[in-house]
Design goal:
249 residues; alpha+beta; Arc Repressor Mutant, subunit A; 6-stranded antiparallel beta sheet; 3-stranded antiparallel beta sheet; 9 helices; 9 strands; DNA-binding; Transcriptional regulator; Tscrpt_reg_IclR_N; WH_DNA-bd_sf; DNA binding
Length: 249
């Protein structure tokens, strides 16, 4: 349960934060009762506080009565120092990739043991895409995820290897196979997937290396129907953009 503040003495601030914290990747919209349950608050209290958040544009209420995160929270989130600066620097380079490839383009960072998508530009080709800006996905079955996993701390890698889940019939869940792929990512500086996150979608991704200290700040990637054609063109566009972002950071 997200933020149980039903105990006596909980402040108004803690209750408001519990309501905001009730939303996550798997719970993007909530009914009043669902919101109250996940926040650990009585329904009347939730109704009153959620109404105030809607009035302040921190939440929004759909016509069917369900609550969603509002524009105020979204705009505030974009001001986070690391993510905001990274998105600002990367945006023109991502546009360059899109212009050169017309593929779906991703910018992502690691958050814990998952991939957090900071930016997505939809390509002109119809490809099944499950990511969205602000969403989090598993590391082991996405191109940007494999890149970030390759440069993650050992304890993060161990956690991911110990919790491999099958998303599609082609998701790699054999630890030795994935470990070998991660080794190749570090050696070759690129990662690929083939229908491992969604059927009909393949991805190619590279690390963004901060030139000042040679650390991996993010990963950028493209999603296409197949990597059999234009692989080198896609890779070239990604590598040029990654170097530009790394220098700018």
């Amino acid at each position: 349960m997200a933020g149980n503040t039903s105990t006596p003495g909980a402040t108004v601030t803690s209750r408001l934060l519990a309501i905001v914290g009730a939303f996550d990747e798997r719970h993007r919209s909530l009914t009043l009762s669902e919101l109250a349950h996940r926040a650990g608050l009585p329904v009347p209290t939730t109704h009153r506080l959620a109404g105030e958040l809607v009035a302040g544009h921190a939440l929004q209420r759909r016509k069917d009565g369900r609550f969603e995160v509002g524009r105020l929270l979204w705009d505030a989130g974009l001001l986070a120092p690391v993510e905001g600066r990274l998105r600002q620097v990367a945006e023109p380079y991502l546009h360059d990739i899109y212009a050169a490839t017309t593929a779906t383009v991703h910018l992502a960072i690691r958050e814990g043991t998952e991939v957090l998508y900071l930016e997505r530009m939809m390509g002109s080709t119809s490809v099944p895409i499950v990511s969205s800006v602000g969403s989090k996905l598993p590391m082991h079955c996405t191109g940007v995820g494999k890149v970030l996993l390759a440069y993650a701390p050992e304890e993060i890698q161990e956690h991911v290897f110990a919790n491999l889940i099958r998303v599609t019939p082609y998701t790699i869940v054999a630890r030795p196979v994935l470990a070998a792929q991660i080794d190749r990512v570090r050696r070759d500086g690129l990662a690929t997937t083939s229908e491992e996150m969604s059927l009909g979608a393949c991805s190619l991704a590279v690390p963004v290396v901060r030139s000042s200290d040679d650390t991996v700040a993010a990963a950028i990637g493209v999603v296409v129907p197949s990597l059999r054609r234009d692989r080198q063109r896609l890779l070239g566009a990604l590598q040029v953009a990654a170097r530009g972002i790394g220098r700018s950071l």
